């Protein structure tokens, strides 16, 4: 993984309070979404389908993250395990990407 640096990332973190991109769908429908991870030598992606109900839905909440939030340094040839516990009020959560 590449370190998040530069003025754009700093401005984004200052505005959002997170180092990842998030999006809220304002219109009901079905959307195809691609999540991407940019690496120094290899990139990865995951495609998923998002169904947005006309009545809306309560957003899931992150209950716990591992390792703890903050700076995480990973050597180029090393692997890192990132985990989080997510809860949802209706307990109908298929996956978190």
Provide a descriptive summary of the structure in words.
This protein has 97 residues and is mostly beta strands. The two termini are 16 Å apart. It has 1 helix and 4 strands, in the order H-E-E-E-E. The relative contact order is 0.17. A two-stranded antiparallel sheet has the order 1-2. Strands 3-4 form a two-stranded antiparallel ribbon. The protein has one domain. The model has no long low-confidence stretch (mean pLDDT 78).
Ordered list of secondary-structure elements with their pairings:
Layout: H1 7-16, E1 29-37, E2 44-52, E3 61-66, E4 83-87
Antiparallel strand pairs: 1-2, 3-4
Coarse structural class: mainly beta
Tell the overall outline.
globular
Counting DSSP E segments of at least 2 residues, the number of strands comes to: 4
Order of helices and strands: HEEEE
Count of discrete structural domains? 1
> Averaging pLDDT over every residue, what do you get?
78
Largest sheet: 2 strands, antiparallel
CA distance, first residue to last residue: 16 Å
Q: Please give the share of residues in helix.
A: 10-25%
Oligomerization status of the protein chains: single chain
Strand content: 25-35%
Number of helices: 1
What would you report as the Rg, rounded to the nearest angstrom?
16 Å
Low-confidence stretches: none
Give the strand order, joined by hyphens, for the main sheet.
1-2
In short:
This protein has one helix spanning 7-16, and strands spanning 29-37, 44-52, 61-66, 83-87.
Task: Sum up the structure in keywords.
globular, 97 residues, 10% helix, two-stranded antiparallel ribbon, mainly beta, single chain, 4 strands
